[in-house]
Amino acid sequence: MRRELYTAGATTAEVDDLLLIADSLRLLRHSNSVVERKNRSRRGIKMIVVPAAYVLIGIMVSTFIAVIAQVASPDSWLFPVQKASDNVAVMLHPQYREVIMMRRADQVRELAVNESSARAQLGALTSYMEVADEYKNQPHADYAAFRYCESQLSQAAKTATPQVRQAINRSLYSLDTT
Description:
The protein has helices at residues 2-7, 12-69, 79-92, 97-113, 118-136, 143-159, 162-177. The chain is mainly alpha-helical. It has two domains: 2-65; 70-177. The radius of gyration is 36 Å and the shape is rod-shaped. The model has no long low-confidence stretch (mean pLDDT 84).
C-alpha cells in the first residue's frame, strides 16, 4: 500500500499518516463486527423476552380479573368473567358445581334484599336454575346444598317484587318435582 501511495504522488509524511488511518479503519471494522454480533444476540434475546413478558403480564392481569370477578354481583360487568371462570373450575373439578349453585342462590337473595332491578334478579335466578339443573343430575348431588339454596331463595322471595317472587316459586317447585 505504501508503494501505491508514493505512485499516487503522496509525500513520505502523507504516506505515514494515511497508513495510520488505514490501520485504524481496519481495527474499527473489526470492532464494528464484534459490536454487530453483540447487537444481533441482544435482538435475539429481545425477540424472546419481550413477547414472553407480554404473555406473563396478560396472564397476571387475567388472573387478577378472574379473582376479582368471583365476588361480582350478577348485575356487574364482571359477572360474565365469573361465569367463565366457574365453567373452567367445573371442568377441572366437577364437584365445584355445588359451590357455584349455592353462590348463585346467595346472589339471587342479595339482589332481592338490595332491591336491584327485576331484570337483574331474574337473570341471577336463571343462572341459578342452569347450575341447579346440571347439579341435580350429578350422582353425587347433595340435597343439603339444595336445602340451603331453597332457604336463600325463600328469603329472596319475601322481599322480591311479585313478578320475581312468582319466578322464584316456580323455580323452587320445578326443582322439588324433578
